Amino acid sequence: xxxxxxxxxxxxxxxxxxxxxxxxxxxxxxxxxxxxxxxxxxxxxxxxxxxxxxxxxxxxxxxxxxxxxxxxxxxxxxxxxxxxxxxxxxxxxxxxxxxxxxxxxxxxxxxxxxxxxxxxxxxxxxxxxxxxxxxxxxxxxxxxxxxxxxxxxxxxxxxxxxxxxxxxxxxxxxxxxxxxxxxxxxxxxxxxxxxxxxxxxxxxxxxxxxxxxxxxxxxxxxxxxxxxxxxxxxxxxxxxxxxxxxxxxxxxxxxxxxxxxxxxxxxxxxxxxxxxxxxxxxxxxxxxxxxxxxxxxxxxxxxxxxxxxxxxxxxxxxxxxxxxxxxxxxxxxxxxxxxxxxxxxxxxxxxxxxxxxxxxxxxxxxxxxxxxxxxxxxxxxxxxxxxxxxxxxxxxxxxxxxxxxxxxxxxxxxxxxxxxxxxxxxxxxxxxxxxxxxxxxxxxxxxxxxxxxxxxxxx
Length: 459
What we know:
The protein is α+β, with helices and mostly antiparallel strands and 459 residues long. It has helices at 2-17, 24-34, 36-57, 84-89, 132-198, 204-239, 255-259, 266-273, 279-300, 328-331, 351-417, 423-457; strands at residues 22-23, 62-71, 80-83, 105-109, 115-128, 249-250, 307-318, 334-343.
């Protein structure tokens, strides 16, 4: 029995020792792989590459083959016979030489066969299209680049979201530990207050206040636990890792690295956030270029601008398959044609002019969207920068308050040991320190989120 117990303990010890840990890279790779929106963007990018190939294919010829075979129960043309006497009578014979009639018929055509085959091979090659084919390639290449940029932007967004959730989990867990410590002080305060009330040293109201404080702490911890659970559930949903828990997450906070962005020059960072390298700005610029190319394509369809193409065709029609028909060369059932085609629209009520105006309007809209995006980024940047700076000031302020609490705790402990103070005052000082520590962790979390947002904007 003892040996079995030792084996079980060792088994669980090794299980805990070698339990799988998930670092940031593991969680990020899983998120990128399983995120539904990310998968959808990848498929859109793959389709855009096919559109590019289609655009390039427009430069080459289009080859069509049409084959048909028919079986006729009653061919429309029967056998043809020639009356020999009609031939003899149609000839002007010398007197006394004309042969006598025979009444015979000679078959000169066997009639159509029951089968009929037709083959048509045509090749059409565009020659000149006023740049529409070239612009189509540019258009779809640009759209493909936009899809690629969207994938990159989504990856950055998911990375920032993941880092923010992990930071939130760590700070919330740290707050939870402080609350656990504070609970011991509050529970002790309730007991001391109840004892003091019995001895008549304090009022009943002081006991009620202590119990209220204890209940408020329980409610706060319950809310905090719900936030932790929600963050974990979001991580499970985004990463697809079902057995994810706080113990399995291997992620540490480098607070100096997080807040290091505040040491940079604000104007330089803002300029970087508004530069063309910022993906949201880059995508809007690419969309503007797409609209400009669309305008050029629309102008290529304007009136009296003909598209020119050459077409060659080979055809065959006969009762047998090609080359299998008897005496096929003499029958001359084959055709070969070469033609040049010109197609243009002369007038369509002004639709093509309206289309050009529509594309120009879309280009102007892209300019407006780009300007609005820059203003939004600038506004968000300033808000997050101010938030991070205010958090820094509050953290410094709370550090001073915590230092003051430490001095007050020592002072109250000294007074209590000398018999002039009460344990209640010591406990209240310790509770106050815990509250200041909790507030500091909240400010650290807010600062970290703001800094992560700034970092995301300046990529």
